[in-house]
Specification:
Layout: E1 6-10, H1 24-29, E2 34-36, H2 44-56, E3 62-67, H3 70-77, E4 83-89, H4 100-104, E5 116-119, E6 122-125, H5 130-134, H6 139-148, E7 171-176, H7 184-194, E8 197-201, H8 207-210, H9 212-227
Parallel strand pairs: 1-2, 1-3, 3-4, 4-7, 7-8
Antiparallel strand pairs: 5-6
Helix pairs in contact: 2-3
């Protein structure tokens, strides 16, 4: 793997590390070391620590890839000195003085939040909301996403951890034009604010599952920037 950048993935809400399974084999076949953080959505501090541990398990330099709330995680964990590039997939990217919720509150609420239950100390996505999360996937894949998703604590988006990696490190951003979970206007504004190399794709909230070809090309571009 000499000379190859490593790739570390960070998942969001109602997902786990398996949401990147359409990307991992291709990247490994190209010689990249790959790690997918399996954080529990119990606290922002704990999730950032989990991503940081994943960084420690691969050789540098590292491309950090975050989907949805995973964008908040790579924004914080990305200050690690071996992280050289950040890739955001339909993701949050709060600034130092923002929370994940504060960034979302600047834009109209998306339809998925009409389909949640708060019980047992967690925020659950109802089956009726899966179409707003990943409606462009085949029905069997939608059921798999619903069955394997990790479930967050209610105040996760109100928590803060220091660090804003995109202020000092090159970033790439994939905007999902058909997103009904994170507002696409938020995505476009985030990409513009961080000065990211932006790629728009006609997709639901999960381009890594519905358009893995596009996501792979963006990750390869970020990795190449570290390898040259």
């Amino acid at each position: 793997m000499s000379g190859k950048a490593s790739i570390v993935f960070a998942h969001g809400l109602w997902a786990d590390g398996s949401c990147f399974n359409k990307l991992v084999p291709a990247l490994q076949a190209e010689g990249h070391a790959v790690s997918s953080s399996q954080h529990g959505l119990d606290s922002l501090e704990g999730d950032v620590a989990c991503v940081t541990r994943s960084i420690g398990r691969v050789p540098g330099p590292v491309v950090l890839v975050g989907h949805s709330y995973g964008g908040t995680l790579i924004t914080k964990a990305g200050t690690h000195d071996r992280v050289g590039a950040l890739v955001y997939i339909a993701a949050l990217a709060p600034d130092e003085d923002e929370t994940s919720q504060g960034q979302q509150d600047k834009f109209p609420r998306t339809p998925v939040f009409d389909h949640i239950d708060v019980s047992d100390g967690r925020i659950w996505l109802r089956e009726s909301g899966i179409g707003d999360f990943c409606g462009d996937l085949p029905a069997a894949e939608q059921k798999l996403v619903l069955a394997t998703g990790a479930v967050p604590v209610p105040d996760l988006f109100d928590q803060q951890v220091p660090g804003t990696a995109w202020r000092t490190k090159p970033s790439w951003y994939i905007v999902a034009n058909g997103d009904r979970t994170v507002n696409p206007d938020l995505e476009r504004a985030a990409a513009e604010r961080m000065g990211a190399r932006t790629h728009a794709v006609d997709s639901s909230h999960v381009p890594m599952l519905s358009r893995p070809d596009v996501v792979l090309d963006v990750i390869r571009d970020a990795a190449k920037a570290l390898e040259t």
